[in-house]
Amino acid sequence: MGYSDRITGLAGGGAAWDVFFRAQRMAAAGEELTMLTIGEPDIGTAPAILDAMHKAAEAGNTGYASIPGIAHLRETVARRVAARTGVETAPENVMITPGGQPALFATHALALDPGQTGLYLDPFYSTYPGTIRGVGGVPVAVATRAEDGFLPRAADLAAAIAAHDAKSLLINSPNNPTGVVYPEATLAEIAGVVREAGIWLISDEVYDTQIWDGSHVSPRSLPGMAERTLVIGSLSKSHAMTGSRVGWVIGPDEAIAHLGNLAIHTTFGVPGYIQEAAAFALTQGPEFEAELAAPFRRRREAALRLIGAQNILRHAPAQGAMYLLLDIRATGLSGQDFAERLLDAERIAVMPGESFGQAAAGHVRVAMTVADDLFEDALARLIAFAGELAA
């Protein structure tokens, strides 16, 4: 018996998650660690949302739910998107998905035929290339540069599209792992390239409620982009509902109809009681979302104070999301080696920059996902450890 090349080659090789998995094994064995690895909010889902989920289940919403989403939730998401972006959005423009990752898969399945190229920007969230491989596409990274604040250059995008006959471009702002928020001028340049090439733009906007500096602009709101942009949203980060697995795709109504057909053949939708809880969560308003984002804002401010008091480590623009990307090249180590040695010496687990592409080599990503005092202590020890290595 054999296995398909699509599945065996999904991850593309490499050691992207080795430090994380080793830290998990250490924790399972009873070792005391500080986990600053994955984007799991430490707040937990609000009791009111869990209560709404429980009541919906007790009311009988435990059977097959409507595909591509119950009407109430699609309407709620459409109103939210229209209010936040200024773009007219109808329920027919909304597809409910079991989280952001299935939305990434679905949008690339829509945009790419087998063998066609999907572009994404480096640094990148680690599942991006595997997602493109998973639909039979060919993933091609377009590097951004630290000296540009990790913002893409329009000329690089145009050249990559032409060289690979690419059919889609995936972007992510606020960005994981860099924390960069793309300004409107950069998004306008990206939009111009996409319109000129006649390709799909897939915009991962799951961190749109975590903006610390600047403002979030959805490229779907730019001229001529609503008909060629697929926006991915999720409640995992904005409402601390990672385990509930509920997200969405926003796009042209014809595209959403095709995605509904894909869901019939794959996920068969999202449980109704979870969708009802999601609709309730979205009615809690911006104040509720700001309250959930507040711990990450506080920790980011504390981190900038600590980093600003030394001259060994530098950081990427920490404008949004729940991460810091730290440049540790002054230690003489790669991100992978630094993360391994930090875990051994200090029992602090971070993600190597190499987990997110070659543009992030020589960096580590720090998730701001533990209590304030634990986070500040861990970051201070990380900085001290880097200083010892540099010395």
UniProtKB/TrEMBL annotation:
Cofactor annotation: pyridoxal 5'-phosphate
Which residues fall in a coiled-coil region? Answer: none
- Residue ranges occupied by any Aminotransferase class I/classII large domain in the UniProt entry: 33-382
State the reactions this protein catalyses.
Answer: L-aspartate + 2-oxoglutarate = oxaloacetate + L-glutamate
| Signal peptide limits | none
Which EC class is this protein assigned? transferase
The family line of this record is: Belongs to the class-I pyridoxal-phosphate-dependent aminotransferase family.
This protein's name: Aminotransferase
